[in-house]
Amino acid sequence: MSQWAAPGSTAVVAVRQDIEPGWHTYWRNPGDSGGPTTLTWTLPSGVEAGNIVWPLPQRQRLQSLMNYGYSGQVYLPVPIQIPAGARPGTNLPLRVKALFFVCSDEMCVPDELTLTLDLPIRDGAAPLDARHGAAVQRIVETAPRPAGVSARITVQNGVATLTAAGGPLAGREPGPSYFFPFEPGLIDHAAPQSGRYGPEGLTLALTPGAELPAAGTPLRGVLSTGLGAFEIAAEVGPPLAGTGGSGDLTPAPEDAPAAELEKGSAAGFVQAALFALLGGLILNLMPCVFPILAMKAAALAGAAHDAPRARRDGLAFLAGVLVTFVLLAGALLALRAAGQAAGWGFQLQSPAVTAGLALLMLAVGLNLSGVFHVGAGVQGAGSGPLARLGGTAGAFLTGVLAVVVAAPCTAPFMAVALGAALLMPWPMALAVFLMLGLGLALPYVLVSLTPGLLSRLPRPGPWMERLKGLLAFPMYGAALWLAWVFSRQTGAEALGLLFIAGLLLALAGWLLGSAQSERALGRRGRWLAAAGGAALVLAAAGLFVAIRLPAASPGTPAANESSRLPAAPWSAQGVEAALAEGRPVLVNFTADWCVTCKINEAGALHSARTGKAFRAANAVYLVGDWTRRDDLITAELERHGRSGVPLYLLYAPGETAPRILPQLLTEGVVIEALESARAVRLPAEAAR
After folding, report:
1. Model pLDDT for residues 192-242, shown as the tens digit of each residue
2. Among 680, 663, 648, 640, which residue's Cα sits nearest to residue 35?
3. Global pTM?
4. Strands 159-165, 247-248: pairing kind
5. Neighbouring C-beta atoms of residue 577, cutoff 10 Å
6. Residue 441 and residue 423: Cα distance in Å, rounded?
């Protein structure tokens, strides 16, 4: 703010954000989505940096969401305490890592900058900096601060009544008023705030959030009025006297909706679509898609020397992928439009879907093992084309299955793309999901449309039968994994019934295979075997329907039983309690059906080195289990721009926002994050 700083004084430096039209950054409480700007300082010995002096934010409505943030140009001042021993004539090197979340109404982009400043030390009072001093001084002078205003919060019949009295409010009409809480989740940010005023102050009617009734502590935030903006701490108690009866408050006008602010929406949509395409390509390398790779490899081998058939299968597979993505995306968007908390992979939160997929994987494995055949006759030993899943129809169904099974995985770039898509108008959102599907199917389609690549495979022969048998085992592995997920969602009794259904299905497959063999030999017994197989299929289906699924027990992390780290269920209160003790917090949002989550836990989170780093940092490990539906976890994922798991958040004492760790973890990433313990992750366009 000033041209230099004097020894023993408090200097004010500021990070300036120059935000492109149509984009915005966030206040300390971002509202319903996004994340605040975070500054991590590297300072000379004896120099201390204070907290950001936050300017009053704008209200930015985005469809059903309300965010708090800034657009255009904004300064974020920070007080810097200069030691008395600083020598005049020298410079103090200041270095800060600025982490921002820059969003439009369609997508969010993280940004990280390292800014430096050599602050001159001189004797005496310094004049304001010619370029930025006046603007920074204006922010410091007008920023909300305590002003002797007393406040109470009363929750009754689903309404939180905030009363404020005294100080500048006494004896004056407050004008348009609005309350900005410091912490998310305490009130419904998007709900209107109506009120009235009296001789001593004002009353605002707020809509409680999920965490307000259990808070039990003062509701802290900024009360913005026509008389100024003031920091308040509303104690729980009866309403204050003299805060009504004189008239109704004028509603505080909202700032321009994000949709109106956005002038680069086309560019944002294109970027989200490209991220989705890249995420879909990477999804082919994720472990949850490995079983489907087996099916694709079998189909490619069978059609390697039949170019027309390969093209048909490739296009049918693409159609299956795209149609399923549209159906899943439509269901997801419809659930969210109906007010349901749903995210990517929501279908695998249903035990019925998990059990059905386990049985389907078993059936596919049996088909590949030659127990029965779909879409082809019985081959002779050691020769003949590879049995496939019903030709073109089978390729389409393989695409359907690929999407359903890929749901547990979230590849890099997918999180940003899907998080943006869920905030877009539905035509744009569906287009982003289609780009994700195109990325998933693209490698297979390109190979199937390139005869030169297919012709390099050996001619059909006995090796194809051996390949088919080998490729059955990833399907059996997938069936076992899904059965394990089902057991975690339900319990041992339901798992036993699923095993019986699987046994009946396997026996039915064997009988159907016997009927096919009898038919190939012209024997009459084929009808009896076929009828027995059909009856067993119906019996397995009936047993599947009869499985009783217990209600979810939210808040119990499924991973805790085998975790080597002492873990507790995630809650916002748990995070706050640990931070209040000065302890770092690592939050793992996971699910039993998320293969990436389990690999990260086994390889990075539950290792001996990571455990040692946790103990050295005195860190707390919290697990948010999303195996079964949990609306609080869904809301927390959305608050950080995610629509699915995994999500890893590292909270450090003294910081207002967590650092988001990569979706693919290594020991080194976790240990470095714990050791730094003051690095936090989030985004914007800025310069000092």
Report:
1. 888 899 999 999 999 888 777 555 678 999 999 988 899 999 998 899 999
2. 640
3. 0.43
4. unpaired
5. 13
6. 25
